[in-house]
Amino acid sequence: MSEATDMRSLLRLMAWLSPAFPVGAFAYSGGLERAAADGLLAGEHGLRDWIAALIDHGSAWNDAVLLNEAHSAHADAGRLGAVAELAEALAGSRERHAETMALGSAFLEAAGAWPSDVFRLLPQRTAYPVAVGAVAGAHGIAASQAIGAYLHAAVSQLVSAGIRLGVAGQRQGVAIVADLEPLLESVARRGAASTLEDLGSATIRADIAALGHEIQGTRLFRS
């Protein structure tokens, strides 16, 4: 990859996965709000460990696998349709389903500013990791880079949610992002070598928290 191509890939990932990109990710916590309400997060250390578990062997890991499959299949409408259907089916609760589908739709609409044939091949409603993976693949961005950027954005959003919920302060939040950097690099590389056979999670409390959020009274977030 040339320096110019590498720079273009970096700039596109920074744009697509920036907090300013109009997907509305700030409105979701993926069950973190319920976990905080139930006292499952012991300050910044608990927040860090919760996020690390999601990245290493939870819903974010599954997103990495789905993103990699969509990246590989970006020119194949049949494979894209299959992974999109699988990603939607894997949403473990009503709110998580609404979250990934809404983010995917918003991402595709905004990413249309970078024209590509991939938009014709994807289903009209596509889960977020599939949308990001397919578009990144169509633009020649390496899978490991796309996964790393996607996971970094997920960590940043969860840390931001934790700060808004009073679990950690801004300084502690930045420290969490820095501390998780080696894990993000490792999981990005692992995700780029994954297949759909590697799907699977072991974060039961996080899944229960996501379900419990649906009946939570006062809420800041939509999930």
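the 2nd protein, sequnce then structure:
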Amino acid sequence: MPRFDTLAELREFLENNATGMAHDTLRSAADSREKRRTDAAEVNQAITKRWSQGLAALDAAIFAMGQNGLMMLKRLDEVDAADPNDSHQTVRVVLALQQFNALIVLQEIQVLLQAGFWSGAAARWRALHETAVTAKVIAERDATLAQRYLDHGFVVQTRRLTAYFDEHGIGPVAPAELASRTKKAAALEQAHGVSNASSKFREPYGWAIPLMGMNAKGRRMRPSMEALEKLAGLDHRRLLVASAHGIVHGDSGGIGGTVLMEDGQWLGGPTERFIETVARPTFETLIHLAGATHVGFEPELNDFCELICLVGSSLMTLCGDAIEKFPRE
């Protein structure tokens, strides 16, 4: 690379040579691909050897979550056919949503951990934690709150679609359908309005406004994940959530902790280190989530209640045992 005395000279060089340099980079990357694959395989083998029992337990947990989720879907269909006005059905729908969302996130965590990308897995753990919090809050309350949760999702997504269409003149929803959704969303906002609230239904966690306490001015406080964590009894992980937050948003603390290691090593790829720091809280969170989605799924003692509680308890026991397979280091 030649030296330049002015920015104008540098700009001219780049304009004349950037395309060629880009093609050179593509060729070099192709040549090094096999080495990257070899390095990735070595990390994968090291992780598999060191945490084989824990990773096997994660496989089992993912399998159980999928199988139990299918049971939940079957139950939803049965209740709809038998009694479409069942008062608990809305709660079941929300818990099934949490179950399948957790199933997807768990698989993402598994892939990232197995590949040595622990910070990515930690970021996805935060999503798992928030899913567990929501599931516990919904499971411990009634269909009214569950319906608020579902309607809030419709309102928020409609506003996102509308904003995108207004900005770009195009989107995944046709204008006529978007107009219909917007009308329905406005009606839902009005129906779910809470007097003396510090925030609106359409704002973050607006579905949880009725659960919030009053402030000194007699207004219901704005809902937040921190407040929901306390309601769910999962606020003991707040500091870990804050750390994951830094990774998710790439703030200076998050980047410093994931790129610059304690020993001064700069990290630019996968590593077999820190796997247990994500795996342990993942299993712990799954215990709480499984308890909420399974035990809260059926309000009355019947054959299905016994079955879903049994398989849920089995999954929770599996996760508890798995924690011991990822010892603290």
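The mean pLDDT is 93. Residues 190 and 201 are 9 Å apart (CA to CA).
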